């Protein structure tokens, strides 16, 4: 059985033989978004006047100081929370809650410890109505995509942190999402594992064409992976609410050379923006 994970050009609409679902990335439109959390003395205005457009199949990283609203934005995109004002749309359809069209990966893996890798990855497709056989085939292909086909019968406790995060990525991909949302997914990994997962994520993005929103505190990681790096500012202690201050297309060929002068230029410019020296 084939499940539609074969390489294909980014941005094309190809039906998946296993699910019949479209497999290209969705366009994301965020317009005038405000997020206000009720506080004890006063409300916390985490985001205000936030506009962001991400094209089908783009890989966009979001960077910015702690508390500027990156995770809040990601949770709104995932549909875990609802913005207090503004519009969030995927391919023109308003986001009204979580859905299988969006795969989410957090820093802490979030796997079921009592399920094997295969069972963890097959869980979503099963819940979405696939037969056991079909879900198992989809899960096996997703695990192969992250280089873990040999660990399918192992439990999370028997896997390294990098392997667990691979399973979490496979699980997010198994529903054939049109958008992949990742919140500091490699933040807890050592430098070598992080670097190899970055390479793998680039390959996965090239082969699936999934629109990807990736939050990181590593400017090098953002420049290495992304078509665009969006810089946010505001939040805790700044007196301002979270908003976008810069949107920088990364015009470098892949695979990227992190030691190249042009790469370092991007890193320096983005770091200056984050630390408030660049505007
Ligand atoms: N559920 C909540 N209730 C109240 N305030 C919240 C809630 N979630 C987030 N906030 C506030 O919203 C602001 C943005 O938080 P958010 O977690 O989005 O920041 P972040 O950019 O992801 O930070 P970090 O880089 O540290 O992960 C912060 O001031 C935070 O305290
Ligand atoms: Mg965060």
From TrEMBL:
Keywords: ATP-binding, Nucleotide-binding, Transport. GO terms for molecular function: ATP binding. The keyword Cell membrane does not apply. SMART domains: AAA. The keyword ATP-binding applies. It holds the Pfam family ABC_tran. Residues 30-259 form the ABC transporter domain. Residues 1-24 are annotated as: Disordered. This is ABC transporter ATP-binding protein.
């Amino acid at each position: 059985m084939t499940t539609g994970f074969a390489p294909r050009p980014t941005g094309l609409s190809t039906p998946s033989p296993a699910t019949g679902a479209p497999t290209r990335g969705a366009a994301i439109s965020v317009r005038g978004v405000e997020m206000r959390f009720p506080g004890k003395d006063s409300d916390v205005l985490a985001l205000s006047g936030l506009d962001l457009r991400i094209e089908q199949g783009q890989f966009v990283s979001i960077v910015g100081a702690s508390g500027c609203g990156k995770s809040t934005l990601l949770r709104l995109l995932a549909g875990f929370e609802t913005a207090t004002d503004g519009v969030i749309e995927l391919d023109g359809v308003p986001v009204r809650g979580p859905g299988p069209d969006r795969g989410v990966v957090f820093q802490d893996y979030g796997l079921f410890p009592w399920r094997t890798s295969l069972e963890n990855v097959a869980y979503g497709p099963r819940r979405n109505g696939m037969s056991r056989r079909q879900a198992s085939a989809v899960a096996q292909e997703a695990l192969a995509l992250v280089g873990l086909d040999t660990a399918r019968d192992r439990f999370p406790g028997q896997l390294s942190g990098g392997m667990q995060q691979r399973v979490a990525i496979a699980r997010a991909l198994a529903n054939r999402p049109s958008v992949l949302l990742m919140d500091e997914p490699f933040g807890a990994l050592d430098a070598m594992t992080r670097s190899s997962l970055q390479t793998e994520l680039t390959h996965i993005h090239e082969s699936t064409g999934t629109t990807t929103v990736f939050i990181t505190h590593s400017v090098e990681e953002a420049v290495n992976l992304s078509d665009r790096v969006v810089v946010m500012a505001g939040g805790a202690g700044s007196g301002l609410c979270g908003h976008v201050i810069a949107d920088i297309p990364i015009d470098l060929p892949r695979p990227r050379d992190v030691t190249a002068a042009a790469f370092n230029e991007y890193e320096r410019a983005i770091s200056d923006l984050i630390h408030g020296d660049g505007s």
